[in-house]
Amino acid sequence: MAHLLSASCPLIISPCSKNGPSSLKPSLASLPTSRTSIQPFKSLSINRKNGQRQFSVRATTLQQPGTKAGSGSDERSRQQSRPTRVMVVGGDGYCGWATSLHLSKKGYDVAIVDNLVRRQFDDQLGLDSLTPIASIHDRIRRWRSLTEKDIDLYIGDVCDFEFLSEAFTSFKPDAVVHFGEQRSAPFSMIDRSRAVFTQQNNVLGTLNVLFAIKEYAEDCHLVKLGTMGEYGTPNIDIEEGYITITHNGRTDTLPYPKQAGSFYHLSKVHDSNNIEFTCKAWGIRATNLNQGVVYGVRTAETEMHDELYNRFDYDGVFGTALNRFCVQAAIGHPLTVYGKGGQFEEQFSVNQLASLVTKAGDKLGIQVQTKSVPNPRVEEEEHYYNAKHTKLIELGLEPHLLSDSLIDSVLNVAVQFKDRVDTRQIMPSVSWTKIGAKPKTVSA
After folding, report:
1. pTM of this structure
2. How confident is the model at residue 81 (pLDDT cuts 50, 70, 90)?
């Protein structure tokens, strides 16, 4: 049975409108590493040097005679008598690929913008998706053959504004869904070059998207993926973006304090500030989705063919705790809980996740054990955590929460592909305190 991408808690959003921030206020992370030496990160930035223009490519599947274009379902598309056009930045990635297929199936005209650097990360770090994933070109061709729906493809870097400008003027998006960021906290903490790349890529890329909207698509709505990690772990409830405080007898509603826990999370804080500022200064319409971890592997669309499989990361750099636990259970390795396990994967503690995976393993006749390993992060081992999440519900969201059936599904995928597991990637490999200036080997 298909499982939609599901969050551990309902999404929390921070929309801004042409009138500035509304009452919906601002309110996402890791599997095997080898002993292969990692090259300096500048080798991954080749398409940002002087010859970068040759790496900017536009590709699309061929439109067949008589093929009917889909029709978007919203009122705006009907008024324009054409499908709503949605640009998915980072559409080759985990969230982006599933979103692109879902929107295309719904009848939207979809364009993917991606520099494919996420695949290069695997090559550089000696990692691989547990599930075999096809090339972006084969993915799009397969989708076309199954559905007769085209997805445009623009291969290039959003940090290259000339490329991004060409993509905007060519596709003319009505909305941009922005997933195009380096999304791993451990990756950003490997060494100086990864920390610098993360902040340059994320902050400058998002800033370019904002300028592209201002210059070429002023009515375009930006939907930007943020993270609950911006807020850290305060000892008070996390409000949805803003908090009303009284100080020295005066009261004001201010952005909720941010306590980011990595260079990655800090880049997301900068994004949020830039988005809020441009909403006020330029009247840009934006929704900043600060959400918890997204779980699951299969969607109704990705299950249609094995060339549409989504990626499944289980290593210590890109794999989520749930993915790592399910893979560990599948191969008979004890679940590796960091320290006391009192940290939260949003609304679930790590210990609770381990317990859920143990329960799911019992159903499959797998005996699952748990062991504590030193925590590579600098964080409180146990803490209070309560994030508010009412606004999207009020807007009609029907959240797909982490459930026993979803965990069963993820564990079954781990069992199905357990022969692809690289056991060298099981243990954590990146330390928050040992980060240095020199590029270094990430070893199991």
Report:
1. 0.83
2. confident
